[in-house]
Design goal:
The structure holds two protein chains of two kinds. By secondary structure, chain A is of the alpha/beta class. Chain A has 20 helices and eight strands. Chain A has a six-stranded mixed sheet with strand order 2-3-1-4-5-6, with helices on both faces. Chain A has a two-stranded antiparallel sheet with strand order 7-8. Chain B folds into two domains: about 60 residues, Ribosomal protein L24 (Ribosomal Protein L24e, Chain: T, Roll); about 60 residues. In chain B, the strands form two sheets. Chain B has a two-stranded antiparallel ribbon. In chain B, strands 3-4 form a two-stranded antiparallel sheet. The N and C termini of chain B lie far apart (about 100 Å). Classes of the chains: A alpha/beta, B mainly alpha. Chains A and B meet through strand 7, strand 8, helix 14, helix 15 and helix 16 of A and helix 3, helix 4, helix 5 and helix 6 of B. Chain B: It is found in: Nucleus. Chain B: InterPro entries: L24e/L24_sf, Ribosomal_eL24, Ribosomal_eL24-rel_N, Ribosomal_eL24_CS, TRASH_dom. Chain B: Its main location: nucleus. Chain B: One of its GO terms (molecular function) is structural constituent of ribosome.
Amino acid sequence: MVQYNFKKMTAVPTGKDFIDIILSRTQRQTPTVVHKGYAISRLRQFYMRKVKYTQQTFMRSSQPSSTSSPLGRHPSDHYKLALGQINTARNLISKVAKDYVKLLKFGDSLYRCKSLKVAALGRMCTIMKRISPSLAYLEQVRQHMARLPSIDPNTRTILICGYPNVGKSSFINKITRADVDVQPYAFTTKSLFVGHTDYKYLRYQVIDTPGILDRPFEDRNIIEMCSITALAHLRAAVLFFLDVSGSCGYSVAQQAALFHSIKSLFMNKPLIIEDMKLVTEMKAEAAKTVVAQGGEASGEAVLLTMSTLTEDGVIAVKNAACERLLNQRVEIKMKSKKINDCLNRFHVAMPKPRDNKERPPCIPQAVLEARAKETQQKEKRKLERDLEDENGGAGVYSASLRKHYILADEEWKEDIMPEILDGHNVYDFVDADILQRLEELEREEGLRLEAEAEAEDDALDMDARDLSPEEREALAEIKKKKAMLIQEHRIKKSTAESRPTVPRKFDRYRSFTTKRMGRELSTLGMDPSAPSTGERSQARGDDEAVNMDVDQPNKKLRLRSRSRSRPPGEVVPGEGLRDSAQKVKAIKLAKNSVKLRNKSARRGEADRVIPNMKPKHLFSGKRSIGKTSRR
Amino acid sequence: MRIEKCWFCSSSIYPGHGIQFVRNDAKIFRFCRSKCHKNFKMKRNPRKVKWTKAYRRVHGKDMTQDSTFELERKRNRPERYDRNVAENTLKAIKKIDKVRVAREARHHAQRMKGNKVSEMKAAVKELEQSIHMVKAPIALKEDPSLTLPKLKVKVVQPAQAEDQMEE
């Protein structure tokens, strides 16, 4: 079913817009970059493409769907003219494009190809500019068409016609949701209006037409032509309205005359004549007039009376019209050939009753009993929720989830199985035949133990000589001594910086005594008195032997026989020092200057060796307070 | 509730301890304490870190393959509860533990077996070399055995007293 939906037509652009559209599309949809270094064939192709594309776009755009002819409601000359002009423009543009493409084939430089393209597009645009008035007109047409109501020509339609001001628009307002202008002056309705109404679950179109005057056909104006055309072309039920009261300004006779003149248009259409605006006393009189005048009307015409003001008979009229239309359509369908195909396809079979015996459905007794029991059970069954409520509510009672466990033995339901044992997961050991495997394991273990015992017996004796207990003692002693040494050394090392380096002769604790030495020597197994009784440690008895008399101590000889070191402060003549005090001071100063150097283990003034160029403690680590921006 | 194994050091993680890390490929790493976690973040290989079980296994310091390990296996299919089976399992766990401990001890002994000889050799050598620390060379010359020197105690003879007595 083709829908003439004019609202959905695309808008026709103005001339200028049209040019813009086409040119911008060309620019967007074709490649844009070209350099003069390209091969000449490529340049030509590039510009030819642009020209052709513009032409094609114009062809496409100037073929809108609106050229399909709508219901001829407009004077077709102007319309046809406009369409014709567009057609000529198309041909001209095609010609232009063809010519310029031919020229482009022989373009020898970028500049020449470009100018050819410019010329081609320019000419096409001029042509387009020339048809802009036609485009404007077509746009107007489209707008007008869009405003037309969408009428489906094939569905059930009811057409309302009659003289102006008889009450057609009021009627349509009453039966549909349409809101048509109703005014006291004639020709309020200037075009068709469509409303929809329902009857027996089917949708009906109701079309309101402008009023028709009784005039010869040629004198009719555009508005009347609307109605006439509608009447002529639409297959619909026709409701002809008569105003009996004469308040429309025309007598019944005039209206009847109109009726006769357009009778021809009512061929094959169910016709209902309404007597409108009925006020009771006039009824009988009016009916007579109509019948007298319209007596020759076909027997199919039905006469009804109604009044929209009092809403008297409106529904009846609608129903009657719809019914008649429906019947007519059904009849036509039945007569047509198509229906036979449908009819042949289905057949409703209704079995004829054999006799008057009642045969209700048969339900076996067991099923009935089961059903009864089920309903009973449903009421009596105890839910977990009830149980919970009984035992103290949600916070107090916790449902026993183990109730419905399916186990081999019912007593096991409340068993608690440990999950962890001795640092193992019990579930990891669970096995149906664990006993068997354990047995195997133990057997294995037993075997291994036996093998071990045998191996021990056969174990070869250790080659090494075992140490005797005394030797072991000695070894222990050695180890102890070594440990002591290490310990002492560690202490010394840790205190090295803060410990003063004092020569042994000033030992404060007097730890170096002969007795101690003797003790140590004896533990070592030496004779303790041996060192002190050695030859060297004995004082030489020379002086005693020579000088027997004590009265004359020979100091000078002593001086010579025993070499003695000079006292530290003794000034030797020739040294350059004044007196012993000065010498002592000088010695002190000298020692002071050397002390620091000695402490840092430098061999002399010139020793600038740095044992560790990048000590780790200076080049790494964070400060506990402060920044580490200087290293 | 399960006792898991720490990915780094392979120790057992009891419930409520440690951290679990899930990587984007859905692999789960469990750590028993922050030490293991931090080591993992430092991308350290547990096979190279001395104190982990992985290292010990790889370097043969601990038992690797044993039938006792096969008895303990993570089973994904839950079994229906059976009291007898549960009882047997619990008893078996203890026995298996005993066996396993015994085997580990054996393994350790086996590993340490060669020590005795080398130790003895080292001891002898040390004794010979360092005997001078407890025994003077003179004493050694007199008594060449590698033992502590005998302490000589001077005994004062009461001979004069006798003489006096005689007189």
